[in-house]
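Person: Please comment on this record:
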Amino acid sequence: MENYIGVKIVKAEPQEKNGVPGYRVKYPDGYVSWSPKATFEKAYRKLDCKDFINSEE
Protein backbone atom coordinates (compact mmCIF):
# COMPACT_ATOMS: atom_id res chain seq x y z
CA MET A 1 0.00 0.00 0.00
CA GLU A 2 1.06 3.58 -0.65
CA ASN A 3 1.16 6.45 1.86
CA TYR A 4 -1.22 9.41 1.51
CA ILE A 5 -1.83 12.59 3.48
CA GLY A 6 -5.00 14.67 3.43
CA VAL A 7 -5.73 18.17 4.66
CA LYS A 8 -9.16 19.61 5.39
CA ILE A 9 -10.56 22.47 7.45
CA VAL A 10 -13.53 21.52 9.64
CA LYS A 11 -15.75 23.30 12.14
CA ALA A 12 -15.86 21.72 15.60
CA GLU A 13 -17.06 22.32 19.13
CA PRO A 14 -16.61 20.33 22.33
CA GLN A 15 -19.48 17.92 22.94
CA GLU A 16 -19.91 14.96 25.28
CA LYS A 17 -21.58 11.80 24.03
CA ASN A 18 -22.75 9.24 26.60
CA GLY A 19 -20.44 10.93 29.14
CA VAL A 20 -17.39 10.66 26.86
CA PRO A 21 -15.64 13.94 26.02
CA GLY A 22 -15.32 14.66 22.33
CA TYR A 23 -16.15 17.05 19.54
CA ARG A 24 -19.10 17.64 17.24
CA VAL A 25 -17.49 18.03 13.80
CA LYS A 26 -18.97 19.68 10.70
CA TYR A 27 -17.24 19.07 7.38
CA PRO A 28 -17.24 21.51 4.41
CA ASP A 29 -19.91 19.43 2.60
CA GLY A 30 -22.26 19.79 5.59
CA TYR A 31 -21.75 16.28 7.00
CA VAL A 32 -21.81 16.30 10.83
CA SER A 33 -20.18 13.65 13.01
CA TRP A 34 -18.79 13.15 16.51
CA SER A 35 -15.22 12.26 17.38
CA PRO A 36 -13.66 11.26 20.72
CA LYS A 37 -11.49 14.02 22.23
CA ALA A 38 -8.12 12.21 21.89
CA THR A 39 -8.81 11.12 18.31
CA PHE A 40 -9.90 14.60 17.25
CA GLU A 41 -7.02 16.41 18.96
CA LYS A 42 -4.49 14.03 17.39
CA ALA A 43 -5.78 14.87 13.89
CA TYR A 44 -6.69 18.58 14.14
CA ARG A 45 -5.18 21.85 15.41
CA LYS A 46 -7.16 25.02 16.13
CA LEU A 47 -6.97 27.60 13.34
CA ASP A 48 -7.60 31.18 14.46
CA CYS A 49 -8.01 32.65 10.97
CA LYS A 50 -11.55 33.39 9.75
CA ASP A 51 -10.67 33.94 6.07
CA PHE A 52 -11.09 30.40 4.78
CA ILE A 53 -13.68 28.80 2.50
CA ASN A 54 -15.76 27.24 5.26
CA SER A 55 -15.45 30.09 7.77
CA GLU A 56 -19.24 30.58 7.75
CA GLU A 57 -21.17 29.11 10.66
Observations:
- The chain has one helix and three strands.
- The first helix runs from residue 37 to 43.
- The mean pLDDT is 88.
